[in-house]
Design a protein that fits this description.
- The protein is built from two helices and four strands, in the order ββββαα.
- By secondary structure, the protein is an alpha+beta fold.
- It has a four-stranded antiparallel beta sheet, with no helix packed on it.
- A hairpin with a 4-residue loop joins strand 3 and strand 4.
- Helix 1 packs across helix 2 (87-98).
- The relative contact order is 0.08.
- The model is unreliable at 1-5 and 7-12 (pLDDT under 50).
Length: 104
Amino acid sequence: EGGGAAGVASSTSVAEVAAGGQRQRMVSVGAGAGATAAPSQPPGAAVQVVIRGCMAMASGALATLVAVPTDLIRTRQAAHRGKSVSVWSTGASVVEKHGVRGLW
């Protein structure tokens, strides 16, 4: 234990506790009796966070890649009220006028 900047005692302790049938190592950092305990991070936890972040970005990109052209074609079809226009012909007319990039 050591004194803090304002004279408040702070402590760091490590204990193993049983939680849900598993033993976890808990690290307690705080000031006096109000200290809170949090599980210490397992090795590789930061790598898992980065991998999950990359997977989320890839998922969003794939969803955009599919959803935006689909929504554009659906909106163009709705603009042709009274006419029966197929999905393929609507998409082909967009590509013909604006190129493939016109879908996005």
